[in-house]
Design brief:
six-stranded mixed β-sheet, binds molybdenum atom, about 35% helix, binds ligand MGD, about 750 residues
């Protein structure tokens, strides 16, 4: 850090490791500000225990779900945020109009606490008022029956359990639509589309045991210290075993550099830490495809010079398309690779060398790969690199997409998809006796477009904060207001709830941590983690309010009030969730003896044929792909273009802002910053602390974000970073990966203009 740099309020250099005492302190603060300290320790101890609840924080697995409590700062924040003692009651809503609430920040809205009553919007008074559950269901049923089914959108956020998600899709399909926008469409859709084409299954292939056996990990475009903190334990162990961890990330993320394990007595006592990344490459945003192609190019060259690098037997017997892949790599020029990735041919040779020496390699990746114009092709390129050396379907090796929400993978498995398979639809028909629609439905961007065009009239949200999570708020927010009906099932108030339609309802639901009692007694739900392990989650806490209902109960209530000739006995299913699981077992593959196997601690693994080198692709082989050129994204128009990545801070869970700090990046009490490389700043005549306006630099774009403070940061040249969701206004709705529909949140061409040299006070 440059000593002469002027000081900017809230910006301080952070020198320590990630984790360590700072993490323990942050946990204590989360507990103190959200919970009764009496309940907190027991609640936290029940996270990810065989008879406890699944941590709502992330989808990283636990070893057999029976290890001793794994300390995790952000897991603790997620749990205490839900188990908070704060409440938003009818009295609160009577005092605050929707217009006045819309002026509050996202941080304030959720910070008011847990929703306690079902609510209906009253336009005359501009307030939400309590409503009886059954009365609300009846009115919603009436509206939905008056609409063509294709005008109704069913949005799912990935925290919903398998049981709730299954009932939700059943409701939609019996009504007659496959419109399933979901959070996965903004997240790992590139994985769900790309991996089936490459290996036949849209899921990762590694398990935790593979990390014990691996010889090399390449980590691309994810920030585990913040977003998958329990993964840090695994990375820490690897580093201690001397396994190289090679990182590709435009930002220097502290946890990937140095981490102090709060579970390690020695590190905690000595203020020690462990270096995580053996090598850290600050690739340009959107430069990974170029880098991956460079690594492949070196490998092919090593092979022709010295041989023994490619796994020829594997390629011959298990793959298809190698020649076309190799020809494209040979035709890709080093010049293009270097300029697009920002990395040198020599740097990439080091990676290729380490990769050629390793007998078992895992590649992990996150949003830095998927949220680009060619996210799907990026994912496939990662698979290609692994296939070259037979790194799929052998111990210690494989592909590891880091999922987002704790059950986003499970939601997809149980049928939340706008493109259902014919096999699944015919099973639904056989089991339930209604004919589900075969026409493909809408994903998240298509649903929004349908709302904008007036082709969608109702939006039902099973969790989430749809409008805020989406790009292009200037277009998405007004679209919410054109609807006849919006219905939200949630735990806390958020902005999407307040963008009211002609009629709007908010239904408060039980969270993961809470006791779920139904007619036959206490219920458990099930979830699937990033490594395809399905297990039970059982809440124990007293519900935040006696009025709350479970998500399955709310979905069933809506369905029975809407479908006058339903073939499903909704009430019976909600009485005992085992009955929902029986139906899942009957209609979907991989759930044999579902109820029996989730009663085994740790649960069971969904079938993953590629782990046995069985490839459910049309050719029966793993498929190499061809990534045309090296550009992952459209170039902007005009001069001085920078590439914006939108990021999560350490104190947020997606659109939920826990606090205004981002400790490891040295930002405190504010979020209105633009991380910028010092060379780029000098070139544009900008100083640390200057205030700028940002505009999107794509043809015809009008997106704009005003008054953002420039912060000098260790970030790849040409790349700038700002926080999600504030920066979502800059992402055009149609700036996306055409194959998967995923918005390109990590690569928006932008331009900055100086607004003021004056430093903004906090
Ligand atoms: N505490 C917490 N946990 C979470 C979440 C949360 O918000 N808070 N969100 C959950 C969800 S839904 C998800 S999807 C995951 C998200 O987890 P991540 O995938 O880690 O998501 P991001 O924070 O968006 O950050 C991505 C990382 O990619 C880097 N990056 C950006 N662009 C590029 C690029 O072009 N190339 C490369 N190589 N790197 C790039 C960024 O610098 C950043 O370090 O986490 C889940 N877990
Ligand atoms: N610019 C930019 N935009 C992005 C991203 C990015 O990296 N950059 N990331 C994208 C990604 S990866 C994702 S996954 C989406 C996230 O999109 P969403 O999943 O829609 O958003 P969340 O912020 O996770 O949703 C928070 C809300 O969920 C509700 N909630 C919490 N717990 C529960 C529960 O147990 N049950 C129910 N019913 N509701 C609950 C609360 O009311 C809370 O307000 O955002 C996407 N948007
Ligand atoms: Mo996500």
């Amino acid at each position: 850090m440059n000593n002469k740099r002027r000081s900017v309020p809230g910006i301080r250099h952070y020198d320590g490791p990630a984790g360590g005492w700072g993490a323990l302190k942050a946990t204590a603060i989360a507990v103190r500000t959200q919970m009764d300290t009496f309940d907190a320790p027991a609640t936290l101890l029940r996270t990810n225990q065989p008879d406890g609840f699944d941590c709502p924080g992330c989808a990283w697995p636990d070893k057999e779900h029976k290890s001793t409590f794994q300390f995790c700062e952000n897991g603790a924040k997620a749990v205490t945020w839900e188990a908070t003692s704060k409440r938003v009651t009818p009295a609160f809503f009577a005092e605050n109009t929707v217009t006045s609430l819309l002026a509050k920040s996202d941080f304030e809205l959720e910070g008011y606490g847990r929703l306690t009553h079902p609510l209906q919007y009253h336009p005359q008074s501009d307030t939400f008022r309590p409503v009886e559950w059954e009365q609300a269901f009846a009115r919603i049923g009436e509206i939905l029956r008056g609409l063509p089914a294709e005008q109704v959108e069913f949005y799912t956020s990935g925290r919903a359990s398998n049981e709730a998600a299954y009932l939700f899709q059943l409701f939609a399909r019996e009504l007659g639509t496959n419109n399933f926008p979901d959070c996965s469409n903004m997240c790992h859709e590139a994985t769900s589309v790309g991996l089936p084409r490459s290996i036949g299954v849209g899921k990762g292939t590694v398990s935790l045991e593979d990390f014990d056996k691996t010889e090399l990990v390449i980590s691309i475009g994810h920030n585990p210290g913040t977003n998958h903190p329990r993964m840090m334990g695994t990375l820490h162990e690897l580093a201690r075993r001397g396994v190289p961890v090679i990182v590709f990330n435009p930002l220097r993320e502290r946890a990937l550099e140095r981490f102090a394990d709060p579970q390690s007595v020695i590190e905690m006592a000595t203020y020690g830490s462990t270096d995580i990344a053996s090598t850290y490459f600050q690739v340009k945003a959107g430069g990974d495809a170029a880098a991956l192609k460079g690594i492949a190019k070196h490998l092919l060259q090593f092979e022709s010079l010295r041989g023994g690098v490619l796994d020829h037997d594997f390629i011959a017997s298990h793959t298809h398309g190698f020649e076309a892949f190799a020809a494209d790599i040979a035709a890709t020029a080093w010049e293009a690779i270097e300029s697009e990735s920002g990395l040198s041919r020599n740097d990439l040779e080091k990676v290729a060398d380490a990769y050629a020496k390793s007998n078992a390699t895992i590649i992990t990746y996150g949003m830095g790969i998927t949220q680009h114009n060619k996210g799907t092709s990026n994912v496939r390129l990662i698979a290609d690199l692994l296939l070259l050396r037979g790194n799929i379907g052998k111990p210690g090796a494989g592909i590891c997409p880091l999922r987002g929400h704790s059950n986003v993978q499970g939601n997809r498995t149980v049928g939340i998809t706008e493109k259902p398979t014919a096999a699944f639809l015919s099973r639904l028909e056989e089991v339930f006796g209604f004919t589900p629609p075969t026409e493909h439905g809408h994903d998240a961007v298509q649903a929004t477009q349908a709302m904008i065009d007036g082709r969608a009239k109702a939006l039902l949200c099973l969790g989430g904060n749809f409008a805020v999570a989406m790009p292009d708020h200037e277009r998405v927010f007004p679209a919410m207001r054109t609807l006849d009906l919006s219905v939200h099932v949630g735990t806390k108030l958020n902005r999407t709830h307040l963008l009211t339609a002609k009629e709007t309802f908010i239904f408060p639901c039980l969270g993961r941590t809470e006791l779920d009692m139904q007619l036959t007694g206490r219920q458990s739900v099930t979830v699937e983690d990033s490594m395809s392990m399905v297990h039970a989650s059982t809440g124990k806490l007293k519900p935040a309010s006696p009025e709350l209902r479970s998500e399955p109960a709310i979905v069933a209530g809506l369905a029975s009030a809407t479908l006058s000739r339903t073939r499903v006995n909704w009430r019976d299913l909600v009485a005992d969730y085992d009955r929902i699981r029986e139906l899942i077992e009957k209609t979907l593959p991989g759930f044999d003896r579902y109820n029996e196997r989730i009663r085994i601690p740790g649960g069971f693994r969904m079938p993953l044929p590629p782990t046995k080198r069985i490839w459910p692709t049309p050719t029966g082989k793993a498929m190499f792909s061809v990534f045309e050129g090296v550009d992952e994204n459209r170039k902007g128009t005009g001069e001085n273009i920078l590439r914006l990545v939108t990021l999560r801070s350490h104190d947020q869970y997606n659109t939920t802002i826990y606090a205004l700090d981002d400790r490891y990046r040295g930002v405190f009490g504010r979020r209105d910053v633009l991380f910028m490389n010092e060379g780029d700043m000098a070139q544009l005549g900008l100083e640390h602390g200057d205030r700028v306006d940002i505009t999107t630099a794509l043809e015809g774009s009008i997106q704009r974000l005003e008054d953002i403070t420039v912060v000098a940061y260790n970030i790849a040249s040409g790349t700038v970073g700002a926080y999600y969701p504030e920066a979502n206004v800059l992402v055009p709705l149609d700036y996306l990966d055409k194959e998967s529909g995923t918005p390109s949140y990590k690569s928006v061409p932008i331009r900055v203009t100086l607004r003021s040299k004056e430093i903004r006070a906090l």
